[in-house]
Amino acid sequence: MRWPGRPCWPPSGGTLAGSPGVGGIADGSGAQARFSGPQGVTVDTDGDSYISDSSNHTIRKLGADQAVTTIAGMPRGIGSHDGWGAATRGEDQTLGAVEGIGGSLDAEDDGASVKVLPRHFEKGTEVLADVLVNASFPEKGLAWAKKQVEGEIDFAGEDPETLAKDAFHEVVYGTHPYARPKRGYRETVEGITRDDVVAFHKAWYRPNDTILVVCGDVESAAVRAAVERCFGGWQRAELPATTCAPPEEAKAVRKASLEADAEQAVVFLGHLGVARKDADYDALLVMDNVLGTGSGFTDRISKRVRDEMGLAYSCYGNITSSAHEEPGMFAAYLACKPDNEDKAVEAMREVIAQFLAEGPTDEELRDAKTYLKGSRPFKFETIAETASYWLDAEEVGLPADELATFGARIDAVTREDVVRVAKAHLHPERMSMARVGPPRPAAADAPAPKGLKIGATGASADGRVWTLAAWEEGTKLTVRLADKPGLIEVVLCPGAVSVLHPEGVELPAIPDLERTSARRYSAARMMTVYRTEATPAQVLEHCLLALGFRGW
């Protein structure tokens, strides 16, 4: 079960948490039934159970003795099912009720599922409904769930790729909630109470905004009866109003550069992408496989940047993988030796520009379309994968025959289509960038920013002696203040300021700066991000004065 109306809450960024028939898929795997359940619950069933057969690239039907029924739903809330519990059973009894019949209750990013044998379908539905409707959120389970999320946050703060991905979301989405990591930030997660979770559940978890998908050897009539019995008492309610505007394309190129104790540099380039229901999606899918996500490093980015030039350990680029209800991102990624970073980024840009100028060859087009159709069955190797697909399809609003027409739609994509959508949706001149890696040394002959001295020395209000270094990189001004106990780095860009500072150092309020986020950057340092209309020079002056520096 899943809730398609995902609220933009909490504002601080914490998380509360037909037949395919074409392209090698055998008839029958999409025998889907759809109906409205009690109180407005949307119910999809696939009618029968199927599984991918890799020996002949088809999807075959399972017999009743082999099938497993997956009932998919329920958003994760704060982290895992450990934090939920049910008022009628209690936490241990809830899990025991599923495990006692050889099933499993699993939580995911924005949904959950119960997996049971077909003969236990009604019991599985009953448990899922009980946890959903009667969630009790016991303190013990909630505390454990928060620790799990905090562990994820700590890991993210030490992992260069995660840091780069988070920074890339920030530069692409700006002030939109999609800029924030789903895991939230430590300070927001720590502040979540049981009352917060209960209130959120009461406001948002309603049948009129719920999708339930059942996949397995269960008749549609049995599904309808079980849903009516288990969810019939769940009351509809008007959902809270949301104020989230759709994400907008950045008005200027944004850059984020973070230092990390790492042996390689991780770089993301890109900009706002497309929604899943965009009319150009199928042509963009073919484009992606030619440009940056082909199988076996056959795409242009991998072939050129990785194999031919040897500049990156890993690289890719695509626009369709993140497309959902709202626009995702065009993201070009590379991981490389720090010494190769600039060359690799330039090579990536050149490959994209060349593709826009030339388009795909006939051979590239044919290979991409063949791969897309031939690999489709492998996305349905388990019943759970099938259920997840139908959840996404229903949430995004795809037509019921999307699978049935997939192969024909891909076959219909022409070279001219790929050229057209590439020029319409790829904008190299607008690509923002986020990079994480070892410190990038300033050029020895870098001109000193106006009013600053390279290598100046001064004292702070507490008497500590600091050295200052400053340099310009395009529109970015980087200032480092360092002494033995710690390092403060202020990165000033038009419209935004990032401050890296030792943990425990409280930054005073700085005029003209609006704090937007704070997160752990490394084991001993934090990063605070501000939004501003002031110029970099004005911001620097405010920072130095606020921190007590004189005589620079």
Give the helix/strand layout:
Blueprint: E1 33-36, E2 42-45, E3 50-53, E4 58-61, E5 69-73, H1 91-99, E6 104-107, E7 112-116, H2 121-133, H3 139-158, H4 160-173, H5 186-190, H6 194-204, E8 211-215, H7 220-231, E9 255-259, E10 265-272, H8 281-291, H9 300-308, E11 314-318, E12 329-336, H10 341-358, H11 362-375, H12 383-396, H13 406-412, H14 415-425, E13 432-437, E14 456-459, E15 465-473, E16 476-483, E17 486-493, E18 496-502, E19 513-520, E20 525-532, H15 536-546
Parallel strand pairs: 2-8, 9-13
Antiparallel strand pairs: 1-2, 3-4, 5-7, 5-8, 6-7, 10-12, 10-13, 11-12, 14-15, 15-16, 16-17, 17-18, 18-20, 19-20
Helix pairs in contact: 2-7, 8-11, 8-14, 9-10
Describe this structure in words.
There is one protein chain. Helix content is 32%, strand content 22%. It is an alpha+beta fold and 552 residues long. It has 3 domains: 1-7 and 18-135 and 205-238, Metalloenzyme, LuxS/M16 peptidase-like (Cytochrome Bc1 Complex, Chain A, domain 1, 2-Layer Sandwich), CATH 3.30.830; 255-373 and 399-437, Cytochrome Bc1 Complex, Chain A, domain 1; 456-546. The strands form 4 sheets. It has a 7-stranded antiparallel sheet with strand order 14-15-16-17-18-20-19. Strands 1-2-8-5-7-6 form a 6-stranded mixed sheet, with helices on both faces. It starts with 32 loop residues before the first strand and ends in a 6-residue tail after the last helix. Mean pLDDT is 76; it is low at 3-31, 47-67, 73-82 and 443-455.
